[in-house]
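Example 65.
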Amino acid sequence: MTSCACTGRSFAEVAYRMLRDRLSAAEAEGLTGCGSICTACIPDLRTFLGRRARPLTRVPKERMP
Ligand code: FES
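Predicted structure in complex with FE2/S2 (inorganic) cluster:
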């Protein structure tokens, strides 16, 4: 699973919001709504964010779209 079926948002969007807005995973999840409805995506979302956190934090903020 690479997106939240209930909200239609991709996990990449959650990771992007974390980096762009300097949010914690919980804050980004709360803002996007991912994981807040049926909660089925939470395990995959947490795995995705854990894998993405390190490389994404190295992207300079001014280079973000
Ligand atoms: S699939 Fe993400 S809350 Fe239901």
